[in-house]
Hints:
Blueprint: E1 9-12, H1 18-28, E2 32-37, E3 51-53, E4 59-63, H2 64-69, E5 73-77, H3 83-94, E6 98-101, H4 107-110, H5 115-121, E7 126-131, H6 146-152, E8 160-161, E9 169-170, H7 177-201, E10 206-210, H8 211-218, H9 220-229, E11 246-250, E12 255-259, H10 263-272, H11 287-292, H12 294-305, H13 310-319, E13 324-326, H14 330-333, H15 337-342, E14 345-350, E15 354-359, H16 383-389, H17 394-402
Parallel strand pairs: 1-2, 1-6, 2-5, 6-7, 7-10
Antiparallel strand pairs: 3-4, 8-9, 11-12, 12-13, 14-15
Helix pairs in contact: 1-7, 7-8
Amino acid sequence: MAGTLSHIRVLDLSRVFAGPWAAQMLADFGADVVKVEHVKGGDDVRRMGVPHLGADGEPTGETSSFLAMNRGKRSLALDLSKPEGQEIARRLIADADVLIENFKTGTLARFGLDFETVAKLNPKLVYCSITGFGQTGPMKHLPGYDPIFQAMSGLLSMTGAGDGEPGAGPALVGYSISDITAGQYAVSAILAALTHRDAVSGEGQFIDIALLDTQIHAASHMAMNYLSSGTLPRRNGTASQITCPWQVFDCADRPIMIAIGNDPQFARFAAYLGLEGIAGDTRFSTNLARVQNADILVPMIAEKLSGKQADTCYAELEAIGIPAGPLNTFDDVFRMEQVEARGLLQEMQHEAAGRVRYVANPVRFSGSNAANAVPPPRFAEHTDEILAGLGFDALRIAALRDAGIVK
């Protein structure tokens, strides 16, 4: 079964997380993705993350981060700062549907590879630029990584233990959420631009994605709470600021997450705890009232749950339709029957890394394939293959390699 995007060619000039994540999503959907890496060492993320261990327990030379972001791509090592490298890039661009890049604003213009220039070569090209702060504004020239955008977007003002609580202070989200968020927005924008090209205009267009913008937009519902009321969100540990009860509670043996989304659920939950009367109490009968009186309600719930075993509590709540879940670590996650049933944990064979287990793309199509199991490329693995596809013979490729244009 062909991939949904098997007709799409993508040139991935990006590195590290956000751009490679977007390109990998397109590869998972079947697109032919060529990853262009610098001739001296390739993508920085090849040296980030945990070293991937082989069957003998020794490092394989691959890293977990690179393996997680670059599935389904072909690698071309190319020096874009040299005229010969730029010419090769232009030949690839001429036949591409999509270009993804995350160079500092203005860098590719110096190489003659900016949108205005290459659109003359390929008017159908969808050109997606992913940067920290976008193409406009006083900060457009600045670099940045995920924690910077977690901080600047206001996210850190809402995460972590509240003032006066043990361990009070902001806490980073445990993965590069700003990069993944920007990458997902980029995928949506690219697919929208391809649809517009094919169904409306016949032409590609430029897409400007900024990590700061996308992280702020991803928190729109919390921003709207502030814009509507003037009240700033606050750090509140695991508890929601707009719904109650909606937080981690300690059972006798270990914690459990409970999330009550409406008043009927709360009534059933209260009855389960032996607190039937509180569902009709005006202090707790609506979600707004529960939020306003959380300092009274939460200790009542915590006392009742403290004597219960977490597994028993989880099963009993599931039986009465109350959303609850254990606090899993990854070893718990990958033992879950649900995760196994959904096929999220897959494995593939990598020439250097050997057996690689990975998290499969979670999208399921009924009429096309979204599970691209092609392993991430070794550095410069496909240079000869890609150049040969452009018409370069072996002697010309060798000359380019000797000149340091390719590797």
